[in-house]
Structure prediction request, 329 residues.
Amino acid sequence: MGRFANISLVNFPILPAKEPGRLQKTLDRMRGFIADAAQEQSDLVAFPEICNCLGASEPWKAAEPLDGPTITALSEAARQSELYVVAPLLLDDAGRRFNCAVLIGRQGEIVGIYRKNFPTHSELDNGITPGVETPVFETDFGRVGLCICFDLNYWEVGAGLCQNHAELVIWPSMWAGGRMLSKWAMEFGFNMAAVWKEQSTFVDVAGRELLAVRREVSDRSGRSPVVTARIDLDRRLLHPDFNLENLQTLFKRHGPTAAFAEWLKEDCHLIFGSQLPGVSSDQLIEEFGLETMRDYLARVRRDRKAALASAAEPVYANGQTGAQDGERV
Prediction:
């Protein structure tokens, strides 16, 4: 049936480091970009890493509490425009500093906070505390996960977001991400939206680039740096193994247009989506015993572990395995 969301990213036009009243001017700009995203009927708008102090001469000293000026201003803007906002900032939490991304809801409420799991050495040297969790947050259009910049290099962050069933991962960063975005999308089966000051990139569940827009930092054209893409969060990534026969059964029962199924032979992937009114992809997957790529890879890992455990058991002349009478277990 499709479950679409309009997602906006902002190629952030930073101010000079010594600009007088820099934070207030930055927040004023950000409120304007949120309004621009609302004009594009966006459901969510996201900014780059540490947007409250991006380009400042000493950003590590700019940490704020959750009720500080940045989240206060952006929460009000989110409420006025009735959309979700991803606000990355340096957060001061009871004296500890974190590189965070805060998800703000349509009514200006705090939906959730992600703390960067893998700060760089520069961040660690400047007192940034690593996060330890990979939460995924429920929104009215789907399940949204967050990660930040250097996290993209670490499999365990993506695996955690996958385990928590993210459908869309927002990645605020200081670099573009490149082919790593596709790798994560394919392995973990979620859409990705990557945003830094010079580029916005959208990648689907099969790792295909949907849209990539670059913006020169010195752009003075006056155009809004908001980039918006329409994403179907009901699409699922499957492996052809064990699914093709069940797909045939689905089409026989519900008709040839009941679902979208695209076979990417070179990648050995299937992109699947329900086209039945009122029926989600997950409902069809459950009804017909289909298996997502996520679940297939997890099953292989479990079966591999069981096979290795079995292979480690001793085999005796009588063909039996395991411990014998009198043998220490």
In short: The mean pLDDT is 92. Residues 293-311 form the longest helix (19 residues).
